Amino acid sequence: MRLQKFMAEAGVASRRKCEEMILKGEVTVNGKVAELGMSVEPDDDIRLNGKKLTISQPRVVIMLNKPRGVVSTASDPQGRRTTQEYFRDLGFRVFNIGRLDIDSEGLLLFTNDGELANRLTHPRHNIDKTYRALVEGKLSPQAIEKLKEGVQIDDGRKAKAKIHSVGSARLDIENTTVLLSISEGRNRQVRRMFEAVGHKVLRLRRVAIGSLRLNNLRAGEWRFLTEEEINALLRECEMRS
C-alpha cells in the first residue's frame, strides 16, 4: 500500500498530515528517507522520527462531549487543558477528527484510524454537523433567511445553514436559541455566520454529526462508538460524495 495510507492505518494521523511528515523527511523506510507516494510492504521497517510503525491496534472511534475551555489539540503552549488529557490511560494514541474552538462545546470524535478520519473530514463529502447556539438579541426573519441563503464569511465563498428551530432561551428571553446544521467545517464558521448577520454567539454546542447524536453524554464524558455507528457515518459520507 501507499506509505501515507500505511501511516494513517498505523494511527499516526490523517493521510494529509502523514504526507506532510513524509515531505519534511521525518519518515524512513528500511533505513532510507521516504518519498511521497512510495509503496511499502507489511514487513518493511517503517519509522517516524526513529520510532517503528506497525498496524496492530483494532480500529476505534470515540465520542467526547468536549467542555468549554478545553482546546482540541494534543498539547498547548499556554498550558490550557487539552482533549488528549481525557485519553491518557487509553493505552494507545487517538487523534481528533475535526475540531471545536476553545469556547465551543459538545460532540467531538477521536480515532486511531487515519484513513477513517480522512473520509469523515474530506471536503468532498462532509456530513452535516448540527449545533445549538445561544445568540445575542432577537433574530429577525431577514437574518434567518440570509443564513439559509448563505452569507459571505471569507474568500468570496458563501456559507449556508439549515435552520431547524428558532426560539427564546428558557432562562434568557432577551436572546435567541437556534438549532442549525452546516455541511462544511471552516474555522469558527457558525460564529462568523451569525456575526455576518449582526449577532454574537454567546454559547455554542455541537449536538450531532450526521445521524450520530450526543444525547445524554455529560460534559467531559466519552464513550466508544459501536461498529454500527461507525458504519452509519461512513455510509453518510458515501451518499454525499
Please describe what this structure looks like:
Helix 1 crosses helix 2 (15-23). This protein has helices at residues 3-9, 15-23, 114-121, 141-149, 189-196, 227-240; strands spanning 27-29, 32-33, 46-48, 51-52, 61-66, 95-97, 105-111, 129-135, 151-154, 157-159, 162-169, 172-182, 201-209, 212-213, 222-224. It is an alpha+beta fold. It is 23% helix and 30% strand. A hairpin with a 7-residue loop joins strand 6 (95-97) and strand 7. The protein folds into 3 domains: 3-52, RNA-binding S4 domain (Structural Genomics Hypothetical 15.5 Kd Protein In mrcA-pckA Intergenic Region, Chain A, Roll), CATH 3.10.290; 61-124 and 220-240, Alpha-Beta Plaits (2-Layer Sandwich); 128-209, Alpha-Beta Plaits (2-Layer Sandwich). Strands 5, 6, 7, 8, 11, 12, 13, 14 and 15 form a 9-stranded mixed β-sheet that branches.
Give the arrangement of secondary structure elements:
Elements: H1 3-9, H2 15-23, E1 27-29, E2 32-33, E3 46-48, E4 51-52, E5 61-66, E6 95-97, E7 105-111, H3 114-121, E8 129-135, H4 141-149, E9 151-154, E10 157-159, E11 162-169, E12 172-182, H5 189-196, E13 201-209, E14 212-213, E15 222-224, H6 227-240
Parallel strand pairs: 7-13
Antiparallel strand pairs: 1-2, 1-3, 3-4, 5-7, 5-15, 6-7, 8-12, 8-13, 9-10, 11-12, 13-14
Helix pairs in contact: 1-2
Assigned CATH superfamily of the largest domain: Pseudouridine synthase I, catalytic domain, N-terminal subdomain
Helical residues, percent: 10-25%
> How many domains comprise the coordinates?
3
- The residue-averaged pLDDT reads 89
CATH architecture of the largest domain: 2-Layer Sandwich
Unreliably modeled segments: none
CATH class of the largest domain: Alpha Beta
Specify Rg, calculated over alpha carbons. Answer: 20 Å
Give the count of helical stretches. Answer: 6
Secondary-structure-derived class: alpha+beta
Biggest β-sheet strands, sense, barrel: 9 strands, mixed
Count every beta strand, where a strand is a DSSP E run of 2 or more residues: 15
CATH topological fold name of the largest domain: Alpha-Beta Plaits
N-to-C order of helices and strands: HHEEEEEEEHEHEEEEHEEEH
Q: Can you tell me the overall shape?
A: elongated
As a percent range, the share of strand residues is 25-35%
